């Protein structure tokens, strides 16, 4: 391919990803302008008030849970895993898109990620915090939650390292820590930008403290870039391992509907699908609220919708394959578990899941739908509803009809299940809105790399 | 007041890259090129050796993996052997996940804290911050700095040299802390 063709492609790419006449200066001004606003916009304040209200719902419900125990939830025998595990898997899945965008797309040199990676990484952090809450509280006696940790103690008590539940603890804990380190490393140059632009002494001190004295020298960038690349490299297998391990919680048991080898890849694809849904919801809202439509462009939304089409289709394929294998296995319990999903008393949960996760993404074959912002917004919310129902289908429908009909039961959540679930939205949005208020929502340094002028050989040809 | 060094501004990444080559070829050692984002090719232009951070991360990852595998083996074989469902005590395939997770965790700490060590950060105070203009380096400006610690440093000559290779707004930075 000739140089001219390559160059015009690069040019076109950057024109789609940054609209209007952008320079290094305008990028800095536009992105750092948001946390530098004197007053938050009224929409932010309303959203923050709502988030704080939900947070207080969480605190109240959590207090009652600790006081009274997990008996206040709708769990029963045989449905011993209810909303707590559904919400855990749902939130941790949402987190996966952040790491996919920041790590995997970085390794593949997909520079369209540069406008949305900060955003998505932050979403990951708060989503994983919400997820980690559930294993912590579902044990009932949360004051002994430290028993998860392999700590030497006077009871000579250790976790069983051959159990997927403890793998899960290590996987999610590592995932959170590495995501936090990755996020903060990416923030250092941007914090330095905010420090250097700060008008008041207090802002200068606080941003300066967290910027660690960054001076943008190439002797710093050299090590920085290597560290960032390695973090991306190790986050990639890490993120694939996290949801695979989560799926092992189910797959290593002998419950029909759980005991399948397809779970790890199927869970990972579903996680990325739901995570992109959440990134889309937040991105559409934030770009219009803060007028950053030239930095998070239609082209970005289009590309995210394409990834949702891909992962949604993998999820759809997995649903079909589960059905096929349950018939092909010749095992009556296995076949019954799947027929019961589609035609049993919880048929509505199953078909909600099929609609949101299999049928809906097929609209994304058409560019018209991929670039229609209101459609994307509604679809992205439906995606996460669908993925929540997927976990409901897996957890509740598989458990509610045991091998013996005498052990069959129905499950319904109590008000406390609902309050804690809604409460985690309070944690998520409180954190996310504070991030929007005080930190740059896109990477100032990395967005500049999308401009052709950032290449020192620009204009040589 | 002691002089820290001299800074000169350049127009764009390509000017900075050429300036870096000139400074390197003139034989300076204690100099740096500052930019708002990493500029491709500057490492070679400045004559920098490959970062040794990779070895640090590798060692950290290895320690993490050995620690993870060792912890599980020790707990299940010697500290508190638990017979659960007749599973073998030394169930090494089951140890893989936690070994892997701890390898990743230790490498990530190695990457971030190793990067800080090599970059000599956190260092909240630096003479370069005395320059008002230098602030724009985190937004849209490109600077070369040559330190007075360099054996070839001579204030006059360095000023002229930077001017000759296209540097603008040349400024001598004084370290206001040192008398």
TrEMBL record, chain A:
Regions crossing the membrane: 46-67, 79-105, 125-149, 169-194, 226-246, 266-286, 307-328, 348-366, 373-398, 418-439
Keyword entries, A-Z: Cell membrane, Membrane, Transmembrane, Transmembrane helix
Compartment(s) of residence: Cell membrane
Membrane topology, as annotated: Multi-pass membrane protein
Pfam families registered for this protein in UniProt: NrfD
GO CC annotation: plasma membrane
Claim: Membrane is one of the keywords in the record: yes
InterPro entries named in the record: NrfD-like
PANTHER family: POLYSULPHIDE REDUCTASE NRFD, PTHR43044
Family designation: Belongs to the NrfD family.
The protein's name: Hydrogenase
Organism: marine metagenome
């Amino acid at each position: 391919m000739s140089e001219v063709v390559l160059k015009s492609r690069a040019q076109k790419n950057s024109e789609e990803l940054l609209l209007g006449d952008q320079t290094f200066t305008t990028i800095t001004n536009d992105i750092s302008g948001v946390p530098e606003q004197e007053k938050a916009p009224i929409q932010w304040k309303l959203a923050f008030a709502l988030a704080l209200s939900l947070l207080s719902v969480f605190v109240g419900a959590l207090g009652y849970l600790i006081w009274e125990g997990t008996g206040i939830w709708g769990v029963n025998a045989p449905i011993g895993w209810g909303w707590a595990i559904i919400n855990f898997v749902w939130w941790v899945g949402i987190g996966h898109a952040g790491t996919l965008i920041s790590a995997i797309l970085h390794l593949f040199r997909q520079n369209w990620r540069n406008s949305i990676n900060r955003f998505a990484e932050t979403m990951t952090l708060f989503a994983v915090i919400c997820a980690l809450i559930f294993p912590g509280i579902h044990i009932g006696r949360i004051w002994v939650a430290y028993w998860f940790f392999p700590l030497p103690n006077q009871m000579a008590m250790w976790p069983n390292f051959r159990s997927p539940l403890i793998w899960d603890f290590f996987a999610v804990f590592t995932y959170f820590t590495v995501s936090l380190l990755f996020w903060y490393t990416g923030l250092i140059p941007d914090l330095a930008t905010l420090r250097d632009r700060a008008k008041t002494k207090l802002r200068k001190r606080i941003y300066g403290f967290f910027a660690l004295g960054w001076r943008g020298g190439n002797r710093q960038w050299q090590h920085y870039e290597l560290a960032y690349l390695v973090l991306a490299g190790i986050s990639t297998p890490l993120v694939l391992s996290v949801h695979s391990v989560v799926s092992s919680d189910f797959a290593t048991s002998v419950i029909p509907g759980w005991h399948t080898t397809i779970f790890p890849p199927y869970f990972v694809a579903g996680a990325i699908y739901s995570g992109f849904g959440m990134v889309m919801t937040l991105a559409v809202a934030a770009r219009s609220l803060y007028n950053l439509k030239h930095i998070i462009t239609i082209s970005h939304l289009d590309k995210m919708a394409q990834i949702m089409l891909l992962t949604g289709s993998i999820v759809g394929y997995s649903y079909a394959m589960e059905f096929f294998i349950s018939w092909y296995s010749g095992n009556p319990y296995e076949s019954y578990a799947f027929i019961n999903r589609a035609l049993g008393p919880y048929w509505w949960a199953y078909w909600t899941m099929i609609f949101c996760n299999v049928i809906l993404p097929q609209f994304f074959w058409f560019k018209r739908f991929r670039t229609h912002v209101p459609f994307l917004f509604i679809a992205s919310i439906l995606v996460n509803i669908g993925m929540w129902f997927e976990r409901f289908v897996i957890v509740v429908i598989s458990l509610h009809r045991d091998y013996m009909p005498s052990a069959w039961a129905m499950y319904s959540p109590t008000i406390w299940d609902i309050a804690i679930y809604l409460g985690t939205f309070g944690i998520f949005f409180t954190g996310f809105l504070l991030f929007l208020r005080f930190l740059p929502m896109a990477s100032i340094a990395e967005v500049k790399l999308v401009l052709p002028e950032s290449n020192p050989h620009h204009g040589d040809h | 007041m002691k002089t820290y060094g001299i800074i000169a501004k350049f127009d764009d990444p390509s000017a900075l890259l050429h300036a870096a080559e000139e400074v390197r070829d003139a034989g300076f050692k204690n100099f740096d090129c500052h930019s708002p984002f990493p500029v491709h090719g500057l490492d070679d232009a400045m004559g920098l050796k490959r970062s040794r951070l990779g070895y640090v991360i590798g060692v950290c990852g290895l320690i993490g993996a050995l620690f993870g595998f060792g912890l599980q083996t020790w707990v299940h074989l010697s500290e508190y052997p638990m017979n659960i469902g007749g599973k073998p005590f030394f169930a090494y395939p089951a140890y893989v996940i936690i070994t892997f997770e701890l390898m990743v965790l230790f490498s990530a700490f190695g990457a971030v804290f190793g990067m800080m060590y090599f970059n000599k950060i956190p260092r909240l105070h630096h003479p370069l911050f005395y320059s008002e203009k230098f602030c724009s380096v985190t937004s849209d400006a490109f600077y070369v700095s040559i330190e007075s610690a360099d054996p070839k440093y001579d204030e006059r000559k360095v000023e002229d040299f930077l001017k000759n290779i296209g540097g603008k707004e040349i400024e001598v930075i004084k370290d206001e802390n040192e008398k």
